[in-house]
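Lest this sound abstract, we let one protein speak, letters for residues, whole numbers for local backbone shapes, and leave readers to judge:
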Amino acid sequence: MDFALLHPDPDDADWLRPVPPSAALAQRLHPIEREIQERRRHSVELAESFEPFMDISAQDPPTTHAITVLEGVNRINAALDLATAECHTEVLTVQPGGGRSEDRLSEGLERGLSVVDRGVSMRTLYQHTVRHSQGTFAYAERLAEGKVEIRTLEELIERLIIFDRTVAFIPARDDRQVALELRHPGLVEYLVKVFEQLWSRAAPLLEEVQYDPVPKGISGVQRSIAQLLVEGHVDDSIARRLGMNVRTCRAHIAKLNTALGSGSRAQLGYLIAQSGILDQDH
């Protein structure tokens, strides 16, 4: 670093004369002090510019993330466990599909008991096919002492869990390895309304499902399958929508074939349309 402690002798260019250190120091500090003053002035201007925005933020409560992407089963379960622990009033759930495995029922029972024991109410929607699952009835009996209601519908939307009408969880991928945690009030309110509409159409688990009478001894489930066949759905799609496995779905289709005297899938669609079994809503 050049400290400027020497300068040319005005009388002899071949010589350098010493500069007093105090003078050299003052000369070096002057531009630095000028820069510091300029930066201080700039910082004051910035603070004054941001002051109105600071007042606004101080008036509003801090907001949480409206949508959080949860990747991986462990992270999803951790978020669900936290929401369960923080829940104080109500849990609303939609659980599509048929009967649950023992592991999934045990996991659900543990989480359910943790909220029911605190006096939190629970309302759960399953599909009609769980009515053939002894495990589901055992699960319902274990929770029966709390404020728990379970109803079923023939078709449901994808899985949905809502805690205290403030946070909701929905799957973001078919393999359920990614979920969305929703905290935006508008989104959660919309999902609550969807749940309430489904709930109003559902039948209590312990009551028999009332289907409208159908001709030719065809069951209500088979009529639902017939409707989906006419709409062009394949076996896998029908089974998924009605919460049953493909083998059961095909067994029902075979019974439809027999009842209507069909010899092929193409003929079955025609006979369904001609039979009148879809003329009544159910």
